[in-house]
Every structure is written in structure tokens, then in C-alpha cells.
Design goal:
By secondary structure, the protein is α/β, with parallel strands linked by helices. It folds into two domains: 265 residues, 3-Layer(aba) Sandwich (Aldehyde Dehydrogenase, Chain A, domain 1), CATH 3.40.605; 189 residues, Aldehyde Dehydrogenase, Chain A, domain 2. It is built from 14 helices and 24 strands. Strands 14-17-18-13-12-19-20 form a seven-stranded mixed β-sheet, with helices on both faces. Helix 2 runs antiparallel to helix 5, helix 2 crosses helix 6 and helix 9 crosses helix 10. The radius of gyration is 23 Å and the shape is globular. The structure holds nicotinamide-adenine-dinucleotide (NAD). Nicotinamide-adenine-dinucleotide binds next to helix 7 and helix 8. The site of nicotinamide-adenine-dinucleotide has 21 residues, from helix 7 and helix 8.
Length: 469
């Protein structure tokens, strides 16, 4: 852990094993914070906030930019560590590291532009609207993007002039510590960033019960997000919630099928499907349905599954054992309810790791669990549709509203579909919805507020009116 400018080792604390998901081997131990540790982190964050809010935005930006450069200069080394503890292929962790660095740099730059405004009044008086950092932030990052999630959770508050206590995932702690190290080596003062691991429920209850914390930022499941929102309501803290998704993909019969297949097969099995914006429910217009299903199945079968450290691997293991069980249960339920499995459907016994086959399922009734619950795994659900209205109704049927995708070459359909889909992010003929300068956001049960972009910075700022007469 890293508390008040000190690296903290286990030193008699309880620990949790860190497991390489490609082999099941224990590769380390992560210390779990005590109540005293959390109190020290809180006091440190209070001091860090006082210091950092008074630091010029230009200096804050320099620290973030140096941290981005520090990470990029060690790209291969850091990517290997992230793959070792989280499992995704090296090529993916390299891209993730690049995105993490861009995120830090972007928040630094945007933090320099947290401008207010002046409202005209009669001579001798004026009203100013100024933006100020909200205060110490408690942030919780999950294991699916062990580099990218911590970078987002740290970049926004640090760029805005807040301090932050981050609890990265216990499953992949070394990656977050490298992001932290980049910031420390780049001159981030003690107290601005504290990093703790622990029993998630204990850490969140402890931090959110403190009046020092002014904002909560959480990425994870909708159920946990709701629980944390209740705790934040008691403490009066504002929240940013990045929760689950169940992304629909609408493939119209005028789509460039090859482009749709390339992007969608790549995106579906990226990070073994453990991505909140992973395409999940594929609705394909009836004229092209059979071709799409057949070709998607062939391509899914060709995905090489293995240890992410091997150059030939296209899909790594699931992040932990409980995810294999969860995916298997969803597939069994689908099978029982008449779903047709075109490829995959089983765990893969390989080196003791948590591997699961890239899977394609069709003919699913609406009652199948997987049609309603976020699978968070390598399952593609492919169903036909006839009309625009029918497919929009299906796409919007679930309470989730994170990402949605559509493929069409018609400008008119593209416009209509963009308006009709209930989602925080709509990708039309693209999957690129996660860049540092565009808001990453959900609606409905997928959360509220945004990360990245101007909106991600605003989420860490308050506004104040100063009127002078
Ligand atoms: P989970 O619901 O147990 O945990 C999800 C995340 O929330 C983890 O990072 C965990 O450490 C954290 N968490 C759990 N309880 C907490 C608490 N009381 N206080 C603070 N943090 C808490 O599930 P899991 O098995 O780790 O992951 C499976 C599910 O989580 C997936 O099905 C998916 O829906 C969701 N998930 C979503 C994202 C995302 O990017 N939105 C990322 C990871 C997991």
C-alpha cells in the first residue's frame, strides 16, 4: 500500500494471495488495510488536499505528463506484469498502458482549463463563477483493466486539484502500484494519493463514513454500485458510477459485414469478454443473419486461447476461478432453455488456468439468464431481427444503458439508431468509444456521471458564485 508518502508492506497485517489466472499459481500476497491504516490515509488525504488545491494547475499538469512519459518508457515491462496478474494478452496490456498514459496526460492538460465565468453587472459590481476541487475522493477500481482503471480513478481528481484514496483491485495490485509509482517518481507530493487494499466492504464503509471524503467514484457491478450509493447518501458524498452493461449490437442488412465481423469478433473476445462495454447481444437483420452467424462462429473458433504472455495468444484466461463458474452456469442455463451453441461452451483445462472457450449461442429465449444478466465473459449471443422498431425495442429492453453498437451504411439509419438507443455510448460502425477526450458514461442501471473528457474533470469540481457589490 502507499499511505502518506510511505510504501507499506504486509508487516503483520492480514494478506490475500494474488493468483496468476493463466496457471492458478500464487504469485504474491497483498496486504489488507487495518482501520488504523484507513484513518491514516484519511488524515493524509486531508493534508494532501490542502496542499494540492493550492498548487498551480500548470504544476499539477507537469506531474501528470511526467507520469505518462514514465509509464510509456517502461511499456513492455509494465505490460508483462499486468498480463502476469490479470491474464489478458500482452498486446492488449500494451494498448491499455498507452491509454492509461494518455488519460493521465489528458487530465493534466484539461485541469489547466478549469475556467469559470464572469456575469456582467452594473459598474462596480460583478458576479464570478469559479470552479474548485471537490475535496478528497474515495475511488474503487476493478480488476478488468488493472492499469486503465487506476489511471482514470487517479487522473481526474489529481488533475482537478483533489486528493484521492484509491482501492485498486486486490486481484491485480502490482499494476496499480506501477501507476502510483509513475506519479510518485514524477513529483506527486505525499498525501495527494493514498493507495490501500483491503476487504472491499470494510474499506468502503470506513472511508465513506468519514466527513473528510467528499466524493465517491466506483467502477464495478450494478449491485455493489447501488450499495455504495446508499453509503454515499448517508455521508452526503457526490458519486460517479460506472456500472455493468449488456451491450446490444444492431447489424443492419446494408452493413459492411466484413467490417462488422472484424470489429465485433475482436471486441467480443477482448479481455475474454470481461469489459463493461463488451458487445453481448447481437441482433442481425434476417437477410444477413445466417452469413453473419456462420462467419462469426468460424472466426470465434479460430481465436487462439492461452497464456497472455505467449505471442500467439489472442484470448487469455478469465480473471479468476469464480468467473469460470459464473460463465459456465450461464451457458448451462442457456442450453437448458433451448439455446443452440455453435462453438465453445466449456471451460478449457490448460495449465491450471481459468480458461473458457470463445462461445457463440443463438436461439435464446428472452427468459435465458444470459439475455438478462451481464455475462462478463466470452459469450456472443446472436439473434435475428426483422424491422427497425422491433430491434430497437429488443436493444432497449434491459435496464442497462452503457454501450450500444450499430452497423449500417445508411446515413439515415445511423442517425435514427443513434437517437433511439438507450445507452451512454453509441458506436456506429466503430467500437472506439473509450478515448481520453470523450465521456465514458452510462445511463439507467449502468450508472451516472462520466469519466474521461471535460465531464470527467467537472465531476471532481464544485462551482461557487462570488458576487461583489
Ligand atoms: P463483485 O460484484 O464482487 O465485485 C465487483 C467490483 O466491486 C470488484 O472490484 C470488487 O472489489 C468491488 N467491490 C465489491 N464489493 C465492494 C464493496 N462493498 N465496496 C467497494 N468495492 C466493492 O464481482 P466480481 O466477481 O469481482 O466481478 C463480477 C461482476 O462485476 C461482473 O459480472 C461485472 O458485472 C462487474 N464488474 C464490472 C466492471 C466494469 O468495468 N463495470 C468491472 C469489473 C467487474
Amino acid at each position: 500500500m502507499y499511505i502518506d508518502g510511505q510504501w507499506i508492506a504486509a508487516d503483520g497485517r492480514d494478506t490475500q494471495p494474488v493468483i496468476n489466472p493463466a496457471t492458478g499459481a500464487i504469485i504474491g500476497q497483498v496486504p489488507l488495510a487495518t482501520a488504523d491504516d484507513l484513518d491514516r490515509a484519511l488524515e493524509s488525504a486531508q493534508r494532501g488536499f490542502a496542499l494540492w488545491r493550492a498548487t498551480p494547475a500548470l504544476e499539477r499538469a507537469r506531474v501528470l505528463r511526467r507520469a505518462a512519459d514514465w509509464l510509456l518508457a517502461r511499456r513492455d515491462e509494465i505490460a508483462a506484469i499486468a498480463t502476469f496478474e490479470q491474464g489478458k494478452p500482452l498486446g492488449e496490456t500494451r494498448i491499455e498502458l498507452q491509454a492509461a498514459a494518455e488519460c493521465l496526460e489528458w487530465y493534466g492538460e484539461e485541469g489547466r482549463r478549469a475556467y469559470g465565468r464572469v456575469i456582467p453587472r452594473q459598474p462596480g459590481s460583478r458576479t464570478m463563477v469559479v470552479k474548485e476541487p471537490v475535496g478528497p475522493v474515495a475511488a474503487f477500481a476493478p480488476w478488468n483493466f488493472p492499469l486503465g482503471n487506476p489511471a482514470r480513478k487517479l487522473g481526474a481528481p489529481i488533475g482537478a486539484g483533489c486528493s484521492v484514496i484509491l482501492k485498486p483491485p486486490e486481484e491485480a495490485p502490482a499494476s496499480a502500484m506501477l501507476i502510483a509509482q509513475a506519479l510518485i517518481e514524477s513529483g506527486l507530493p505525499a498525501g495527494v494519493m493514498n493507495i490501500v487494499y483491503g476487504v472491499p466492504d470494510q474499506v468502503s464503509r470506513h472511508l465513506l463514513a468519514s466527513p473528510i471524503i467528499r466524493k465517491l467514484s466506483f467502477t464495478g457491478s450494478t449491485a455493489v454500485g447501488r450499495h455504495l450509493m446508499k453509503l454515499a447518501a448517508d455521508g452526503g458524498q457526490r458519486t460517479t458510477m460506472e456500472l455493468g452493461g449488456h451491450a446490444p449490437v444492431l447489424v443492419f442488412d446494408d452493413a459492411d459485414l466484413d467490417q462488422a465481423l472484424n470489429l465485433m469478433v475482436g471486441s467480443k473476445y477482448r479481455n475474454a469478454g470481461q469489459v463493461c462495454i463488451s458487445p453481448t447481444r447481437f441482433y442481425v437483420q434476417e437477410n444477413v443473419y445466417s452469413r453473419f452467424l456462420e462467419e462469426f462462429t468460424l472466426r470465434a473458433r479460430a481465436v487462439t486461447v492461452g497464456n497472455g504472455l505467449q505471442a500467439s495468444t489472442r484470448m487469455g484466461p478469465l480473471a479468476h476461478e469464480r468467473r469460470v463458474e459464473a460463465i459456465q452456469a450461464l451457458v448451462e442455463d442457456a442450453r437448458r432453455q433451448g439455446g443452440q451453441i455453435h462453438t465453445g461452451g466449456h471451460p478449457i483445462a490448460l495449465d491450471g488456468g481459468y480458461f473458457f472457450e470463445p462461445t457463440v449461442i443463438s436461439q435464446l429465449p428472452l427468459s435465458a439468464r444470459v439475455m438478462n444478466e451481464e455475462p462478463f465473459g466470452p459469450l456472443a449471443l446472436i439473434q435475428p431481427f426483422r424491422t427497425f422498431d422491433e430491434v430497437i425495442e429488443q436493444a432497449n429492453r434491459l435496464p442497462f444503458g452503457l454501450a450500444a453498437y450499430a452497423f449500417t451504411q445508411s446515413a439515415k439509419t445511423a442517425l435514427l439508431v443513434g437517437d433511439a438507443l438507450e445507452a451512454g455510448m453509441v458506436g456506429i460502425n466503430t467500437t472506439a468509444v473509450g478515448s481520453a477526450d470523450a465521456p465514458f458514461c452510462g445511463i439507467k442501471d449502468s450508472g451516472h456521471g462520466a469519466e474521461n473528457a471535460i465531464e470527467g474533470l467537472e465531476a471532481c469540481l464544485t462551482i461557487k458564485q462570488i458576487s461583489q457589490g
